[in-house]
Amino acid sequence: MSKFYKELLMDYYKNPRNRGHIEGASISTVQYNPSCGDSVSFDLVIEDGVVKKLSFDGKGCVISQATASLCTEYFVGKHIDEILALEKEDIKDIIGMELGATRIKCALLSLVALKEGIEGFKKKSE
Predict the structure, then answer these.
(1) What pLDDT is recorded for position 35?
(2) CATH number 3.40.50.300 given to 3-125
């Protein structure tokens, strides 16, 4: 892991962006990893299929919490279908590093939570 990306993740962990809750959110979703105890929750405001606001809360390791914080900046302005199409490799690109099998689960926790929340939102909207 390069020094730059370690420093970037530590910055997002120590100085989280968009931490909190959004009153009247279109989507509220939570994901928990029982193997390590990490948890993340997201509130999203969706307008015409586009993420207008996104916040998170949670507890856990640097990777899970920093990734959640990064996601709150990265996904605003994206269409929900773009988020649903993302895969493990896309999260690696967003955080800028390769992770081992155990640590990738920490990084993917946010994507799993967001996809689950969006899929539920889409079903209700149909």
Answers:
(1) 85
(2) no
Which of 32, 107, 43 shows the shortest CA–CA distance to 76? 43
Strands (E), the chain: 27-32, 39-47, 50-59
pTM: 0.91
Give how far Cα 65 sits from Cα of 55, 58, 110, 126, Å.
12, 7, 9, 32
Q: What is the pLDDT of residues 68-92, one digit of tens each?
A: 999 999 999 999 999 999 999 999 8
Could you tell me if 49 and 79 are in contact, meaning their C-beta atoms sit under 8 angstroms apart? yes
State the Cα–Cα distance between residues 124 and 117, nearest whole angstrom: 11
Q: For residue 89, give Cα distances in angstroms to 2, 82, 98, 115.
A: 17, 14, 9, 15
pLDDT above 90 coverage of the chain, percent: 75
